[in-house]
Queue: 2 jobs
Job 1
Amino acid sequence: MEETQANSGGADEPIPFMQQLMDNPFLLLFIGVTMPTVFYILWGIMEITAIPIAN
Amino acid sequence: MSIFPPEQRIWWKEPIERSEILWVVIALVWCLILFFMMPYWHIVGEQNLTNEAYRIKPEAFAKRTEAFAEKYKVREEGDTGIPVVRPPAGSDIYMLGRLWEWWPVLELQKDKTYRLHLSSLDWQHGFSLLPENINIQVHPDYEMVITIKPNRSGEYSVVCNEFCGIGHHTMVGKIYVVDK
Amino acid sequence: MTINRDFRTCPDTGFKIHLPADKLIKWNAVSGVVFLMIGGLFGIAVALTRWPAVHLLPADWFYLALTAHGLDVLLVWLIFFEVAILYFASSVLLGSRLASPKAAWAGYWLMLIGAVMTNIAVLRGDSSVMFTSYVPMKAAPDFYLGIILFAVGALLACFVFFGTLVIAKQEKTYEGSVPLVTFGATVAAVIAVFTIAAGAIILVPTLLWSVGYISHIDTLMYKVVWWGMGHSSQQINVAAHIAVWYALAAILFGAKPLSEKVSRTAFLLYILFLQLASAHHLLVEPGLSSEYKIFNTSYAIYLAVLASMIHGLTVPGSVEAAQRKKGFNKGLFEWLRKAPWGNPAFSGFALSVVMFGFLGGISGVMMGTEQLNIIIHNTIYVPGHFHATVVTGTTLAFMALAYWLVPTLWQKELVLPGLAKWQPYLFGIGMGLVSVFMMGAGTLGVPRRHWDINFADAVMGYDFPGAAHLMMGLNGMAALMGALGGAIFILNMVGTILWGKPKTKAAEEEAPAPAPEPVVATYGNAGTMAVPGTFTLAMVFLVSFVLYYFVNWKYLAGVWPLS
Ligand code: HEM
Ligand SMILES: [Cu+2]
Ligand SMILES: [Cu+2]
């Protein structure tokens, strides 16, 4: 941020990791499907199956 | 422009203007507050929804509710003769939802706690306690046990606010809260 | 197989438009608008029934109309239009041919057939189960089948979109990263894939259950997975309409994102966290733990809200920066005062940003809070909230885009430019009031999806306060105003397409939306101008947000203790 000049690097400077990630739609697709599947759907189903039977 | 590719080949390293950073920081702080309000309320707040729930067959829940109503019935009410049930303070109390009524009517004492068991015998129903505006989803096959403490006396209505078929808008129950 | 490589050059914008994409965008957009009209008519009928003094429909027709309304507008209108946006953002913005127009057409027909099939099932009267179709309430098999076909069609459209991204990259139709708008559309498509997968997981078994092959569907499982679809599809809308906002800012003002990095990272937060919020719908269900509810309903520490607040600054901020560059530099707000308020593409866009944020965003975060949900769940506050998001937010943004897209793609002049000027205000303010009145009535406990809050034929009843009845009446009046705005939009679009005069050179100057000219050569990032006006507005937003949020905690603290 100390830089004031917007331009960075020449044509051969490697693309930063985060930019590569965001330039890859299939990686994004993978993340975007995995996150809610694990945290929302699978976790939710586990909670439901763990509900005890009334005695 | 936003409809053309970025001008810089490497846009990730572009410095960010100050007001934008400032806003991101302010927003992040606010988001943290939003988040911590929930656990905080679990610790200091009095209105938290229970996690206590069980699987139960509708027939079994109906049996329990009927036994409960039988035991503590004090009178009947209205054309349908729906029982009004006055359970002792601190006890387990039952209310079932079915097409299209909440059964039975409860009479509770002010400032006493009760363990309210809710379930449905058929479709899903919405337990909406008015005018408090406490709303809880009621499922068949699952029983939820909520500890409640009515803190104002009066006549309360339980309106169904989950669509449950053509008679949905007629599904209303009652809870009385009495001083003694 | 020969690949269709026929392009035309858009005389307004200079974009190279692939002819099959051109046609697909048009057909998907038009189909969406037709279903908006059908769904809107059901909406008016519903709103007039909920106006206690009018009480238009009998009970069975009310529940039928409400089911049809939800399906036709929420699902069919928005997704058809979003497919058009996906094709626009990939094929047109990247100057690429569309991957497999055949698959795209197959998707289109599946969506259309599915939508018609479900509508027929609903209109027959045996499937008035609301669009949520919570089990064990059962609809006819073709109700579910129609939705499944529609979803499969939409999935094909997503594949065509991703395929087009691949082709554009391979054929080097652009350099570097895709435009921000295309990136936003990618986010929408990613969310759409999850949405449709969740839908398939739950609706296929439900279809089998409705036919009789499966005996039981667990009500809680159904809800968890169904909302994986139901809520995520709202997140498609959010990602799509924010992409549209950026697009309109660019088209109308030549605006550039303040910072590519910040805006794209905000979109990335959507991919990571936005869909978790499906748990908003499960906050008062039995058996789900508070940990699960808190983590998911808060999008993991509200990081998706953070993203929305960022877009809320950068979208108007990019407009401010562009306007200041053009010399509208006086004071805090000259840039805003001198904006083209008479151009429906702009006024629709501006109202959409403001109402989505102030009405939809704040109420949504409030009611998505684990404990606060107790005091609004299933009240009419909920439809109040989502008419702000999905109507004054998404629908209005799409309308604004249509004011530019339709004359541009068809090369025709708007038939009713005078009325078009007023349309976003009528529709936006009308529907904004609809939201406000429904939210107001909801805080008094008025239930959603309810035919008669007078309980005329119920054994026991409840006397709602006069204010509740009043607000439901005002809601009906506001609905008429909004509906009038909606009708003008549809008239304008259909009229322009069917009878619009071909665009002439001279008319182009007064066309509602000017061609995008790169008025701003380089600003942004280090060279970005400060955006004090937008920052001030953002602070106003924050203060409203904080106040409203804590007022509701205060309400909550007043109700019966429960644990
Ligand atoms: C003419 C414009 C519209 C009017 C007058 C209108 C009015 C209403 C009203 C009064 C309700 C009923 C609330 C209830 O009884 O529970 C409703 C429900 C709903 N509306 Fe609208 N609306 C309009 C447009 C839209 C649009 C454009 C969308 C989506 C893009 C939309 C989405 C919905 C949804 C999803 C529901 C919930 C249905 C359900 O509970 O199953 N509406 N609308
Ligand atoms: Cu019910
Ligand atoms: Cu009901």
Note: The domain at 53-178 of chain B is CATH 2.60.40.420 (Immunoglobulin-like).
Job 2
Amino acid sequence: MNRKRLLSSITALMVMITVISGCSGNNKAANTSDGSGSSKGKEKVEITAWLTPQWKGVLDATEAGADYDSFLKNAAEKFSAQYDKYDAKVNVEVIAGDQRDQLLNVNLSGGTPPNVFFESVFPMGDYVHRGALEPLTDIIDDAAKSDIAQTFWDAATFGDDVYFYPFQHNPGTLVYNADMFKAAGLEKYLGGENEIKTWTLAEYQEILDGLKNNLPKDKYSNAYPMALFAMNNQGDTWNLSYLRMFGNKFFDDQGNIVLDDANGVKAATWLKKLYDGGYTNPGAESVSSNDANAMFQNQQLAISFTNPILFTNGKANMESGTSPKFDVRLANIPSESGDPLSFTYVVGASVFKSKDAKKTEVAKDFVKFFSSDPEMVKSSKNGIPVRSSVAEALKSENPLFAAYDANSKYMFNFTGNVPGYSQLREVLYPELQALYMGAKTPEQAIKDYQAGGNKVIQSNKENSVIYNP
Amino acid sequence: MKLLRNSYVKENITGYLFILPQMLVFLAFLVYPILEGIRLSLYRINYESEKFVGLDNYATLFNDPVFFKALFNTIVFVVFIVILTVGFALFVASAVFDKNAKYVSFIRGSYYVPVMVSMVVMSMVWSFLLNPANGLISYLSRDIGLGNVNLLGNQKTVLPVIIFVTFATNVGQAIILYIAAMIGVSKDLFEAAEIDGASRWQVIRKILIPSVGPSTTYITIINIIAVLKIFVVIQLLTGGGPNNSSVTLMYYLYNNAFKYNQLGVASAVGVIMFIVTLLLSVPQLRSMVKDK
């Protein structure tokens, strides 16, 4: 009896083991065929290219089947067709922007990062400091250097090397509801439809006063003059700009935060005064930039934040009837000096380090191809082209290119290219929340931000390959 | 002696062989990650390099006020949510378990619906209601002249709101378990109590609650473990704010692991959470095993 039971259980176990090993055997087979495909033939090289959603279509979203990966897939095809060094294959994958760090960290730990990554430069700086990216200095020629303005190269340079090939940029500005301005009797402050209006700080205050006191309540019930948000790190670059309004430089030459001075405190006090005075949406400490954007589209805010992609999408929503239609125009973030505060998100490709030198070579050649080919770079019109030649050629198509171009001399590098920028972002909004809730005075909030921020920068400097070559 | 051992092995080998696949999965997917987590908590992990740093990661944690805030908030959540869940579920179950079957099914169903809805959806609905700028609750309060209400942006109200939201979502499970346990209590006991002239309250206190003791232990343990891992509500409703006043250990761990790339520190938080859960669960598990 016992023997019979033993026999049947051993048989059952063997069946189970066979099934399990069958599964893993298959995997192994799949892996080796995969591996031999890339390593066996010197001719065939397969690389992966990831991107976060930027724009749909190759040139624009009106094309049939336009999607976020259309551009890179098209670039990959053209690249493979003309490439003579290897038989190159580029696999393109779109990943969600908010999962970027999670996916990259997991894949870096597992040794399977993508070869090429196309994304805004500012959240990718940490990967340079961690030593995960290849310098691209050798693929940038003089023609590119002279066609792309120095501010964009500054954003892409860490230490002595360039790590990102600038492709397009998305400048951050304010956006305002011109209909609400008119309803509040503020016609004289309106800019042109294709202008980025610059107001002085005094004018800005008059606008806020006018919107607060004279906006007809029957037409715009539950509406506020200006967007203010500090729920999380989203849209924090606008908050960083407000903190520079009174002339604070933010970072010193060593890459430390120097916000804690009279000008920094003045800026924080200004924000708090606006919030307490009812010039902004209520509950800024738990309102996100997404909420603010939705409120602006519903005409509950007269002035909000935007970039070219948000601006275009907002207009498209109005055209399609998914949000109320009104007259939207652009303005600069004002400052005490009178010069506008201008910043931009440079978008470009980077190359992750790989143990396979051929893959790195192909990845670099691919990046160079789509970032410099005269046809390919035309797609940068979906943001604002970084290449003067493209902006010049397409200026009749988009009259705002000239306005954005005029702003570039006021541009500041909001990340300071400091190590640990992602972590640094997590330090700011809790302090702003404390400020708005009244848990901290402006002086205290600024002081604590500087102390906490510099601690983050310091600890990340210790591990940075840029600071410790 | 050898014979005895042989026969013991022979007799039990079938049983061991049957649990072997489960044990393999358990070892590979639970025991190994726990051990690996403990190992990682002692290392500083950079891209492609690991450096042994001893207890440095723990020292970093104990020097971070946000960690203590997270620990405190997590304990507050565990205590209040578990007490509320057990108390309310006992109340509802003891009130309805002996009513007619259709009514009991209706009550069970209505409390269980939120359990079936994803926590993400529930959190989004609550965020629509609570949004200070354009949420329904703040809109109504402005309408009736109470001014701006920002329950999620106030350090005093944010914890009670999250406790309520989590409790409202979780309580259905406990009610179902309690009703099932109460229906299973022998009818003889209730009849005897009725003959002795016991009041409803006495029946609940002296018969019902002691009879469903094992269920209470089980509900308490699963709720403690679930609440210790509370994350989605925080991520979607408050992002740990305002000013870190709703940050929990799990959210703190997530931030360290995936936002700051401090895998060592995140692992240290994981180890501490593991120890806390173990300490909280062992006495309860022991009583459960003893009862058996």
Note: The longest strand of chain B covers residues 43-46.
